[in-house]
Write a structure and sequence with these properties.
By secondary structure, the chain is α/β, with parallel strands linked by helices. It has helices at 39-51, 66-69, 101-117, and strands at residues 2-15, 18-23, 26-32, 55-56, 62-64, 72-77, 122-124, 132-146.
Length: 147
């Protein structure tokens, strides 16, 4: 399981021309679920993301988490994060390690529930849909978190 976490001043997801989710300040979390990932992995990753100290304190140091700032999380499923670009022939990434949708969706949902259980407002995209994700990356700050 892999999350690409972006600190944002705002973010939204658009599906078929309609905004389906949007947040102000907080984190945009792109979440990839791999074969063999389990709900326990999603819960552990949710705790790491919620407590990730990438927001600045009054001295400008990364010392505050999403829990400290009261920001929201926009969580978007993205199987392409599990791509393997090292072992393929040619230039096409290998997506065979990504969990199929029927396995990935419950784990994605468990991640969202676990983040919300921390007290973080959670907004989502539409699992499996073609989405346009618009972010205003604050910093920019982008962190990859693996479980």
């Amino acid at each position: 399981m892999r999350a690409v976490v972006q600190r944002v001043s705002e973010a939204r997801v658009v599906v078929a021309g309609e905004v389906v989710g949007q947040i102000g300040a907080g984190l945009c979390v792109l979440l990839g679920v791999a074969l063999g990932d389990e709900v326990a992995d999603a819960e552990r990753l949710a705790g790491r993301v919620g407590r990730l100290r990438i927001f600045e304190n009054e001295k400008g140091k990364f010392d505050r988490s999403l829990l400290d700032t009261g920001g929201a999380a926009l969580v978007v499923s993205q199987f392409t994060l599990i791509a393997d670009s090292k072992r393929q022939k040619g230039n096409r990434p290998d997506f065979s390690n990504a969990a199929p949708a029927a396995e990935a969706e419950p784990i994605y949902e468990a991640f969202c529930v676990a983040v919300a259980a921390l007290g973080v407002p959670v907004v989502t995209g539409v699992f499996g849909a073609r989405m346009r994700v618009e972010v205003v990356n604050d910093g920019p700050v982008t962190i990859v978190v693996d479980v």
